[in-house]
Amino acid sequence: MIGRLRGVLVAKHPPWLVLDVGGVGYELEAPMSTIFDLPEIGREVALFTHHAVKEDSVALYGFLRESERLLFRALQKVSGIGAKTALAVLSGVTVDEFPRLVQAGDVAALTRIPGVGKKTAERIIVELRDRVDGIAAPAPGGGAPRDAATEAVVALQQLGYKPTEAARLVKQAAAPGDAAEAIIRKALKATLR
């Protein structure tokens, strides 16, 4: 899996971009939220990536912020939503605004996003309402977690724990000075008891 790339931005043709990493040009598809915030051509940039392998295709998606990648992945877990719709949602609403829309059940706002109809908006609301709080946890520094505990919570969520459960496990496991890896190990051990 390719999780992150750092290289020189050589082309921007929304929604596509090309990143030169050590002489290899990676073509990535990105939401408009990422495209708008990219530096000019010829500058170095680091992107979080989602590498998708299917029977008939291989695709690479790029995101400036980890919170965007988390939302992209969460959206694809909703039945009937693929990468194209997930990118449309990220292009049409901010990661910070998305949880508010879902919690409020704002079907009208979601259907204003191109490619999202009423039934799709309703499915997003129903299927993500309980998980949306942990998705938009942007931190300063381009999405890098603020501290070891925050990093551990994000990692547990990526392992499938609900945001409240992940936060509870980390709170119980964390000790002052622990690295994220130690907190995660202790939290996972606690679930096996």
Shape-level CATH architecture of the largest domain:
Orthogonal Bundle
Oligomeric form: single chain
| Total number of beta strands | 5
- What percentage of residues falls in helices of 4 or more residues? 40-55%
- What gap, in angstroms, lies between the N and C termini? 31 Å
The H-and-E topology, N to C, reads as EEEHEEHHHHHHHH
CATH superfamily of the largest domain: 5' to 3' exonuclease, C-terminal subdomain
- Uncertain runs: 137-146
Shape: globular
The number of helical segments is: 9
CATH domain fold name of the largest domain: DNA polymerase, domain 1
Q: Any overview of this molecule?
A:
This protein has 193 residues and is of the alpha+beta class. It has three domains: 60 residues, Nucleic acid-binding proteins (OB fold (Dihydrolipoamide Acetyltransferase, E2P)), CATH 2.40.50.140; 69 residues, DNA polymerase, domain 1; 45 residues, Helicase, Ruva Protein, domain 3. It is built from nine helices and five strands; from the N terminus they run βββαββαααααααα. It has a five-stranded antiparallel beta sheet with strand order 3-2-1-4-5. Strand 2 and strand 3 form a beta hairpin. Helix 2 crosses helix 3, helix 7 crosses helix 9 and helix 8 packs across helix 9. The chain is globular and about 50 Å long. The two termini are 31 Å apart. About 5% of the residues have low confidence.
What is the fold's blueprint, element by element?
Elements: E1 4-13, E2 16-21, E3 24-29, H1 32-37, E4 44-53, E5 58-63, H2 66-76, H3 83-92, H4 97-104, H5 107-111, H6 118-128, H7 148-158, H8 163-173, H9 180-192
Antiparallel strand pairs: 1-2, 1-4, 2-3, 4-5
Helix pairs in contact: 2-3, 7-8, 7-9, 8-9
